[in-house]
UniProtKB/TrEMBL annotation:
The organism's place on the tree of life at top rank: Bacteria
Family: Belongs to the LytR/CpsA/Psr (LCP) family.
Disordered: annotated segments: 1-53
NCBIfam families: lytR_cpsA_psr (TIGR00350)
Organism per entry: Nonomuraea roseoviolacea subsp. carminata
Protein's recorded name: LCP family protein required for cell wall assembly
Domain called Cell envelope-related transcriptional attenuator: residue spans: 140-295
InterPro entries per the UniProt record, alphabetical: LytR/CpsA/Psr_C (IPR027381), LytR/CpsA/Psr_CW_biosynth (IPR050922), LytR_CpsA_psr (IPR004474)
Keyword terms of this UniProt record: Membrane, Transmembrane, Transmembrane helix
């Protein structure tokens, strides 16, 4: 993965066998037809990268503009009523999800998708038209983005899912026939091609366990309108571009891109190593600049430009009715955007490895990807007001997770639950000293998770409090330990972190896992995640 971690938009030459570099297009062995974008050009033969003008050359990651959409009602909308009419221009599309849905949390998760449909004014001229497609070329999503806004709306994380990801697509309703489609393994963008945004939402919810509250979608022409309304976006290239497929010609150095040029830039494939993964990195750089400009004083202080931006964004997007019609929710997002700083917006690419069945595709790296999903799922609580540092409120000792000893007891009927939770705690630095099971009188499972410490432990509440802050839901520590039904030894699968010297007289804290247990918060993410996470402020000018 190291070849793809750089965020520089320089022309790096990599061997063509890199994952994500489309050297071949094998037919997927899945029940539904391949997405329209994966069909061969006329003549029945697929064009190799750099050799022809096939449909694949015309793909776009139009989600870039959707990042601006998320803050489209931002720009400090103090005069919200001025833009009420603009909100009425938002296109709406209902969603129908057939699969069970994860629970909602205090966070806000929005699916951001870019549609390269050729339907509609201003879209049909892009790409090859497929005569049998009702929308003049079909529709696809290239890269799908999950926007996660923290519960107190002061942090935002955008997670990119490469379109080459091979995943299990759940049962969905075909958007055209309205008939159920059976689950199958396929490329993730096929979910949108056949089942629309509802199927994409269902696929991500099933794979990640994250509730997706809303969606926002934008197409080619909408993308251009948003960029133009912002007055253009400046980029910097280490080497120039002259690419006929994306219709983009730029010199080395700085360029202020208008909407048409920006569309060519985010579609650009024949640059650098030509992979989807590197293209995602370029677009994250671009999106960071969109976010910075959409939330800048330059826009806010110019009422005329701000108004044009709001109107252009509203006309350019499609949303679910629950979001489009909820002016309070839009205003909530607007206020959230006011808090976001360059350091508050993070861009992450899902950890991936080459697909063992096809090196031209990728699969998500596990358990790394699941740890990232857990971090998002457990970001569910609004922080309590900070108490004054009095003798009664301040902890008696400053504690780290690695100083806390934990015995994990399974109070549910699910076998192996204690070891599963123990592994999660170990990865976050806790010292798990044992496992076990616990049954309430009568053999009933424990409904609610408990955290207990010995009554005679002077600092027991402090040690238990460290564990409490890492468990979802958050149980209040209770004095008085319980007797396990059975016990077992535990060996951590990870090396314990350094600096975790046991505090003198440290008590053993009991975690009794109940049926309401949702997970352990993930604060220490694997390198494959952190090395692929960048902030807007971390974007470097490759020209210097």
């Amino acid at each position: 993965m190291s070849d793809y971690r750089s965020v520089s938009v320089q022309d790096r030459r990599v061997a063509p066998a890199e994952p994500g570099h489309r050297m071949s297009r094998r037919a997927a062995a899945s029940p539904p037809p391949s997405p329209p974008g994966d069909e061969p050009p006329r003549g029945g033969r697929r064009a190799a990268p750099g050799k022809g003008g096939g449909v694949n050359k015309m793909r776009v990651l139009a989600w870039i503009s959707i990042g601006a959409t998320t803050v489209m009602v931002a720009g400090a909308l103090t005069g919200y009523t001025v833009y009420r009419d603009a909100f009425g221009n938002i296109h709406k599309k209902a969603v129908k999800i057939l699969t069970p849905r994860p629970p909602s949390t205090g966070a806000l998760n929005v699916l951001l998708v870019g549609s390269d449909t050729r339907a509609g004014e201003g879209n049909a001229k892009y790409g090859q038209k497929l005569a049998r497609s009702a929308d003049a070329g079909g529709k696809r999503t290239d890269t799908i983005i999950l926007l996660h806004l923290s519960p107190n709306r002061d942090k935002a994380q955008l997670i990119s899912f490469p379109r080459d990801s091979m995943v299990q697509i759940p049962t969905c309703q075909n958007e055209t026939t309205k008939q159920p489609m059976p689950s199958y393994r396929g490329q993730i963008n096929a979910a949108y091609s056949s089942g629309g945004v509802s199927c994409t939402m269902s696929t991500l919810e099933t794979l990640t366990g994250i509730r997706i509250d809303h969606f926002v979608e934008v197409d080619f022409s909408g993308f251009k309108k948003i960029v133009d309304a912002l007055g253009g976006i400046q980029i910097c290239l280490k080497s120039g571009v002259d690419d006929k497929y994306s219709k983009l010609k730029l010199p080395p150095g700085k360029s202020l891109l208008n909407g048409e040029q920006a569309l060519g830039y985010v579609r650009l494939r024949h640059y650098g190593d030509g992979s989807d993964i590197q293209r995602i990195k370029r677009q994250q750089i671009f999106l960071s600049k969109v976010v910075a400009k959409a939330t800048s004083g330059e826009l806010v202080s110019n009422p005329a430009r701000l108004t044009r931006f709001i109107k252009a964004a509203a006309q350019a997007v499609t949303m679910d009715p629950a979001l489009a019609d909820d002016t309070a929710k839009l205003l909530d997002i607007a206020k959230s955007a006011e808090k976001l700083t360059a350091n508050g917006v993070k861009f992450t690419t899902i950890p991936w490895i080459p697909d063992p069945d096809d090196p031209n595709r990728v699969v998500w790296k596990q358990p790394d990807a699941n740890e990232l999903f857990t971090a998002i799922r457990t970001d569910v609580e609004l922080p309590a007001a900070t108490p004054s540092a009095t003798a009664s409120s301040a902890p008696k000792v400053a504690l780290k997770p690695e100083q806390v000893q934990v015995q994990v007891l399974n109070g549910t009927p699910t076998g192996g639950k204690a070891r599963e939770v123990a592994d999660q705690l170990s990865k976050q630095g806790f010292k798990v000293v044992g496992l076990g099971n616990y049954q309430a009188p009568g053999g009933k499972p424990i409904a609610k998770t408990e955290i207990r410490y010995a009554k005679k432990a002077a600092d027991g509440a402090d040690y238990a409090g460290v564990l409490t802050g890492m468990v979802v839901p958050k149980p209040a520590p209770t004095a008085g330990k319980i007797r396990p039904t059975t016990t077992d030894a535990y060996t951590s699968p990870v090396a314990l972190p350094s600096g975790g010297t046991k505090a003198a007289g440290a008590p053993v804290i009991q975690l009794i896992v109940g049926e309401d247990f949702q997970g352990v918060k993930v604060e220490k993410l694997p390198d494959s995640v952190t090395n692929n996470t960048i902030t807007a402020s971390a974007q470097k000018n490759v020209c210097t």
